[in-house]
Every structure is written in C-alpha cells, then in structure tokens.
Amino acid sequence: xxxxxxxxxxxxxxxxxxxxxxxxxxxxxxxxxxxxxxxxxxxxxxxxxxxxxxxxxxxxxxxxxxxxxxxxxxxxxxxxxxxxxxxxxxxxxxxxxxxxxxxxxxxxxxxxxxxxxxxxxxxxxxxxxxxxxxxxxxxxxxxxxxxxxxxxxxxxxxxxxxxxxxxxxxxxxxxxxxxxxxxxxxxxxxxxxxxxxxxxxxxxxxxxxxxxxxxxxxxxxxxxxxxxxxxxxxxxxxxxxxxxxxxxxxxxxxxxxxxxxxxxxxxxxxxxxxxxxxxxxxxxxxxxxxxxxxxxxxxxxxxxxxxxxxxxxxxxxxxxxxxxxxxxxxxxxxxxxxxxxxxxxxxxxxxxxxxxxxxxxxxxxxxxxxxxxxxxxxxxxxxxxxxxxxxxxxxxxxxxxxxxxxxxxxxxxxxxxxxxxxxxxxx
Length: 427
Prior knowledge:
- The longest helix has 26 residues, at 289-314.
- The protein has helices at residues 18-29, 81-95, 178-189, 213-223, 261-266, 289-314, 341-344, 404-416, 420-426; strands at 7-14, 34-37, 64-65, 68-69, 99-100, 105-111, 114-119, 122-131, 138-139, 153-156, 170-174, 194-197, 207-208, 211-212, 250-251, 257-258, 270-272, 275-278, 282-285, 338-340, 346-351, 355-356, 375-376, 379-380, 385-387.
- The radius of gyration is 23 Å and the shape is globular.
- Strand 13 (207-208) and strand 14 form a beta hairpin.
- The protein contains nine helices and 25 strands.
C-alpha cells in the first residue's frame, strides 16, 4: 500500500545504479542528507537486464567506484554479469547507501523552492534532485520493425537472454555495436546461422601500445586536458547528437577481444549492408557493404589512434610502438540487396540498435530535443536539479565505472555548497 504521507529529503537521487551510488558516496562524504530511490526490486542497476552470457566490456582495473576501487587478483580480466550485479550490492552495503528499492518515480515537479517527486510509494519533498537514471532506459527500435513480416519473432537485445530463447532457424541481427557483435558470436557458437546488418560503429583493437583500449580512453579523458588534449571532453563534440554515438566494437568474453566483422564473415556469418526495407517475404539492404566495412575499419585510425599517440607523447609515457594494422580486403560473395526470408530460413530479427533516453518524469522545461538535460557539468539550467552518469556528461568517461565518480564528486561539492573549483584543482 502506497505511503500516504509526504516524505522529506534534502537531496533525492533518482536511480541506484553506478551513478546514483557514486553520488551517494560523495554526498555522505560531504555530510549531505539524502535518499536514493530505484524502481527495481533489487540493486544491480541496468546490468540486471543484460543477457545470461554477458561480460563487461571494460577490464576490472577500470572499476574505480569511489571508496571501492578494484583490488582483486585479475585487473586485466572481465567480469560476468552476475558478478557485476553482486559488486554493486556489496558497494551499496559498504558505503551505507540509504536506498529505497521498488520505488518507481513518475513525476518530478518544482514546488516551494525545491521539488515534489511522485512515486508509486507516495510523494517526496526535496531541496535537490539528482537524475541518475542512466542511458539504458528505453530500447530504440526503428519504425521499420512494423514492416517486418508478423510470422518472424522480433526482440530487442534488451530482451535477449540466451540462444535457447529463440525459435529454431537463422537469426537476423540488426546493428553491429558491442551488443550486436557479442550476441552474434554467442549465437554462432551455439550453431545458429547468423545474418548481420552492418552499422557504422567503428572497430578497434582490444589492446593498443601495451594497454587495454579502456586504459587510454580513461586516461586521455581524465588527464588529457592537462596537456591541452581535450578531444574526449564534451565541449569538443562535433554536435549534440554525437553524445549518442556507438562505442568501439569490443567484447569482454573469452578474456576480452576485438570483434572484426570480416572475421565473422569468414566464420560463416552472412554480412549485409544497412537494413532499409522489408516486405512480406524479404528484407532489403543497402548495396554498400565493401564501403561500409572499410569505413568501420578506418574509424580507429582516423579518430582515436592519433589522440592516444598525442597523449602518450605529451605525457612522456613509455609505451611500445604501435603495430600496423594488417591489410584485410576479404569480402563475401556478392549477393543481391534483397534476401528471401524463407530460403534463408530466417525466423528471428534481433534489434541490436541501442537505447534512447526517456526523461518523461521531468516536469520541468530543461530537456533538449534528445531528452537530455541542458546543463553545465551536470548542473542543469533549473536550480537544484542535477544529472550524473549520462553519456558524455562532461567527457567520454562520464558513464564508465572508472569515470562516473569524478562527475559525482563535483556535483556533491556543488550540492553541499562548497567550492567546486577545489575539486577541479585536486585533479
């Protein structure tokens, strides 16, 4: 039965995943009374939504939650889903996070110099509200899904759990970001015929110049500005839409590895261009697979590699030289842009097309056209409303386990009323 009394909190954190818990840690350090509310019945955040065989794409060494950095025996290993969930439950207990689970927020509105927050368990009054709901909120499914023949089984990667969940037959995976690539490998290993509609997500090496790629992403994003290298900071993005660009095609399974689309094709997966139409008996793709594969492979060398090299040189880091990428011009046998579903025995379409934000609970005119709060370093345009853990909030590292605590620390200083510049100087 919902709580009939309005509850009070100085600061209410919406969401108790990694961002909300990091925020709780720093607010406790600053002496700010606060409460976290989370719609899930148990802690573990969106990691609970990943499939059974999921592994983190980021190595253990990058798990740097404030007050609980990774100190285990396998810093270069990758953690499976259930261990990740357990990690966050231990973290919440360690920091004494005041969490209310099973509490679904339905509305945040301004009231009396603060906020009224409506939930399924009664209302709250708070001086401050922190949006820590993450980026994995609503599965993004293209309108084209409505044109897929109804006899096919459709699901988003958000709903995928294991190969046995799907009907017998071949699987069409739409999208080759990290989830699409990893699920494709899992289904192929289970003996399924896999078709891949190739997207524009870049390939990248799992390791570069002696370290995992995530080492360089974190260090360039956090320390690059000390050397005038700001490319991994939000202000350098070419457009607001770039906040939602896909990450490099990497996997944490089997000890961690890069995913190379031509390799998947050589293994027997069927590669196609972008899925652009469907009819009762077939699917139609763009006829640009060679150009698409070349662009996917060129992305790292054009964008990330020069930045990493510049950082290594500017910081005076001793690192082995870069290894030249081997030339790979393999292509599948040409096929027509339209494939016949029956002859290919395709019974499932799996949409590995990512997520979109849904800030519909925010009854305050502070959201842009992407439902992203307008802000400066997580401090939104509306006084007392903050955001943490969103992609590219302040930099590439903002949603990562090794970076979210930095943004949370800054915001806690702001909420506590202390000098936020002191935080910047400590970095």
